Amino acid sequence: MTTPTHQPDPGSGDNMDGARSSDEERSPNGHSDASRSWQPLGRGGAPGAAVPPHLPPPLPSYDPPRPAAPDNHSVADQVIPPIGVPQLRGASPAGVRIGVWGASGSGKTTFLGAVPIAAIQHQRRGLANWVVAGMDPSSTEFLHESVDLLVSEQRFPQASRAQRDIRWSFSGELRGGWGFGARPVTFALEVLDLPGEAFNPRSNQVGEELHDRAVTHLTNCGGLVYLFDPLLDANQQTTSINYFFGMASQIAGRVRDEGRLLANGRLPHHVAVCITKFDHPDVFEPALRAGWVTQERTGDIPRVPDHQAPGFFDWMCDSFRGGSARLVRDALRNFFHPDRMSYHASSAIGFRLNPYNQFDYRSYVNVEPDGARICGSPPMPINILEPLMTLEKGLRGTTPRPPSGGRFRWGRRR
Q1: What is the distance of C-alpha 233 from the center of its chain?
Q2: Which of 196, 261, 325, 406 has the most CB atoms around its CB within 10 Å?
Q3: Where are the beta strands (DSSP E) in 223-349?
């Protein structure tokens, strides 16, 4: 993951000279502690019992097979118990197939790696308790590797170089408001992690078969997480429109041929748009100066309020980035129904926090200057689990589901 050097706006009061001084004289963000008084940021808030999946149990010990006889049936003729193909462990909950889509280098693998960390931390805010577990050995291994890399080694996962199927189960209780009790929520997340170039129809860096697999996967998904990286979009080689329009038009052609387009001609997918790298100074500082950032109390983690997130994306495309970003924004709303879209200011690692687990504007950058390592503060993902929850909720309302009486009841379709 490459982190561009932050260039402060003239007159903004920032002096990002890149050198870290002592806390008494100058903070890592370039602000003099002696000259800065603390002030709030921005404006006020404008099947059955599932068995935890594990690796398959060890096979019974058998005597080594005899040397194969010189014929094609030698192994099959040996009287030893056969070995079956690997199976999913436990009962599979109702599946939600979600695709993660974005330009090459937009952080798809890091986004997925941050999901289990976000699930662990989500209950802290008293909204829900989530337990994430792999549904097959490779998914479990990726789960463990991601947490180990981001938390223990404080490094970012390597970008995907080949296809990787990820199947995770989510089990938890979603607490209601206004005195209502919690309700259990269980679903499965199925993601096909592919190299970013597989989403660029004009790229010659991946084979046609891998690109066709990407189109097929996104076509068959019910929900899509679209990662918009405002820093990558400034690079002509990774501009978002190159990875969006060609894919969207091919998906639309397949959905049309299957007769699944909505009445207004749009695609039936639910889409969560994530404006990524919210923690990066080149994204956070302009958003702060433009008044999009809210901090409810001093020390709380800054955020963009949910109801302002669509406007934040519009501002990001119109005023901050411009150019092809506006085309991506307009194309998203052209291909997908606005009522099936949500927006999230996201960060896979979050801000650096002080020893008291508080946000301090004088020192919030959570990536080392070389962009390869995370600072001492453990990752605190922002809006990583929320897009998946939003998609699950939307899909539950638009797909057939059996009520207690046993008959299917159809959800709304717009």
Answers
A1: 18
A2: 196
A3: 223-228, 270-275, 341-345
Q: What is the DSSP letter of 201?
A: T
Report pLDDT digits (tens) over 346-390: 999 999 998 888 999 998 998 887 766 787 678 899 999 999 989
Rounded Cα distance, 250 and 227, in Å:
19
Q: Alpha helices, DSSP H only, in 126-229?
A: 137-147, 208-220
Tokens describing residue 353: 């926090």
Cα–Cα distance measured from residue 386 to residue 345, given in angstroms and rounded to the nearest whole number: 10
The mean pLDDT of 164-186, rounded to a whole number, is: 74
Given the structure tokens 């950058």, which residue do they identify?
365
Give the Cα separation of 3 and 365 in Å (integer).
Answer: 11
Sign of CA dihedral 360, 365, 369, 375: positive
| Of 52-66, 112-126, 343-357, the least confident | 52-66
DSSP-derived secondary structure for 134-151: ESSHHHHHHHHHHHIIII
Q: What pLDDT, on a 0 to 100 scale, did the predictor assign at position 93? A: 55
